[in-house]
């Protein structure tokens, strides 16, 4: 009789989502060769091929797609069981900070499940821009924070969670190809500086020798989306968070990815360490 280890299933999820043995290894805390060996043994046990390998990428086969659904369900059940029966051992206060857009898109699920599993943990959550969060963290006012960073210029001791693909977006009324839209200064909807999304947009335009004008600046993702929706200008957003009423502009210049990461104090309380681990586990299933 064979059993499937949930750690192997977590590797399956990571590999399916990243399309890379090395990036999957970073996510699950294993070497590239260890990830490859886990997948090889899994395929050998079932006598099926779950991943198609090429020199450039790794993708799921049809059998792999079926496996993925089962893997997600089994890992979710395992996490729920672990959270439920570990909850009685964890108590305390956690000060946690997050950018507003991450908080709106992902935190309700993550923090809701964590709070339910750990009712003795008192959460204090702050939502604001990355720079003020980092300043509070460095002053010892936050235990854990989520940050957006350039993968080439990481914050010290940051724990990468995933990378965001960025895209150009606009209202239907401003849907134009890049050459037409940039005949004059390009109107931009932006976050205040410093912001990695802002720098991705402006540096890309400057490399293309395109002039731009910041017509609307807001620290709020919802405020920026409203301005774009009203046709005030163009914006850069994570592909996964583009509101359905906005258009992703094809054939505009490519934008470098942004990394979402977790920063934790050197000495975390058991409650803060539990939240950090919980966030990493939940994100690994995205």
Q: List the total number of helices.
A: 11
User: How many strands appear in the DSSP assignment?
Assistant: 12
Termini separation (Å)?
31 Å
CATH topology of the largest domain: D-Maltodextrin-Binding Protein, domain 2
The main sheet orders its strands as 4-3-5-12-6
User: H/E element string?
Assistant: HHHEEHEHHEHEEEHEHEHEEEH
Structural shape:
globular
Which tags fit this structure?
single chain, alpha/beta, three-stranded antiparallel sheet, D-Maltodextrin-Binding Protein, domain 2, 12 strands, 11 helices
Can you describe this structure in just a few lines?
This protein has eleven helices and twelve strands. The protein has helices at 6-18, 21-28, 32-46, 62-86, 100-105, 107-117, 130-138, 178-181, 196-207, 221-229, 270-284, and strands at residues 51-53, 58-60, 92-98, 121-127, 144-149, 159-164, 166-170, 186-190, 212-217, 235-238, 247-248, 258-264. The strands form four sheets. Strands 4-3-5-12-6 form a five-stranded mixed β-sheet.
Structural description of this entry:
By secondary structure, this protein is α/β, with parallel strands linked by helices. It folds into 3 domains: 6-85, Winged helix-like DNA-binding domain superfamily/Winged helix DNA-binding domain (Arc Repressor Mutant, subunit A, Orthogonal Bundle), CATH 1.10.10; 91-147 and 264-284, D-Maltodextrin-Binding Protein, domain 2 (3-Layer(aba) Sandwich), CATH 3.40.190; 166-256, Periplasmic binding protein-like II (D-Maltodextrin-Binding Protein, domain 2). The chain has helices at 6-18, 21-28, 32-46, 62-86, 100-105, 107-117, 130-138, 178-181, 196-207, 221-229, 270-284; strands spanning 51-53, 58-60, 92-98, 121-127, 144-149, 159-164, 166-170, 186-190, 212-217, 235-238, 247-248, 258-264. The strands form 4 sheets. A 5-stranded mixed β-sheet has the order 4-3-5-12-6. α1 (6-18) packs across α2 (21-28), α1 (6-18) packs across α4 and α2 (21-28) packs across α3 (32-46). The longest helix is centred in the first third of the chain and has 25 residues, at 62-86. It is globular. It starts with 5 loop residues before the first helix and ends with a helix.
């Amino acid at each position: 009789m064979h059993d499937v280890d949930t750690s192997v299933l977590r590797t399956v999820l990571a590999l399916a989502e990243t399309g890379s043995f090395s990036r999957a290894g970073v996510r699950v805390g294993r070497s590239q060769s260890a990830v490859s060996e886990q997948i090889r043994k899994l395929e050998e046990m079932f006598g099926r091929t779950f991943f198609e390998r090429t020199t450039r990428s790794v993708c799921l086969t049809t059998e792999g797609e079926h496996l993925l659904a089962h893997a997600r369900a089994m890992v979710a059940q395992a996490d729920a069981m672990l959270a439920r029966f570990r909850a009685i051992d964890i108590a305390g206060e956690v000060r946690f900070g997050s950018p507003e857009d991450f908080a709106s898109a992902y935190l309700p699920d993550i923090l809701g499940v964590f709070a339910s599993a750990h009712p003795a943990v008192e959460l204090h959550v702050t939502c604001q821009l990355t720079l003020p969060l980092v300043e509070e963290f460095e002053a010892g006012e936050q235990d854990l924070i989520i940050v957006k960073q350039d993968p080439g210029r990481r914050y010290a001791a940051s724990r990468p969670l995933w990378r965001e693909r960025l895209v150009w977006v606009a209202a239907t009324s401003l849907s134009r190809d890049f050459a037409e839209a940039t005949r004059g200064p390009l109107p931009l909807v932006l976050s205040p500086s410093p912001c990695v999304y802002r720098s991705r947009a402006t540096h890309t335009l400057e490399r293309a020798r395109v002039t731009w004008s910041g017509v609307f600046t807001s620290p709020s993702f919802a405020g920026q989306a409203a301005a774009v929706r009203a046709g005030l200008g163009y914006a850069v957003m994570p592909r996964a968070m583009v509101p359905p009423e906005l258009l992703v502009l094809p054939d505009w210049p490519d934008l470098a990815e942004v990394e979402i990461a977790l920063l934790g104090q050197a000495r975390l309380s058991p409650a803060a360490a539990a939240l950090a681990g919980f966030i990493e586990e939940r994100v690994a299933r995205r």
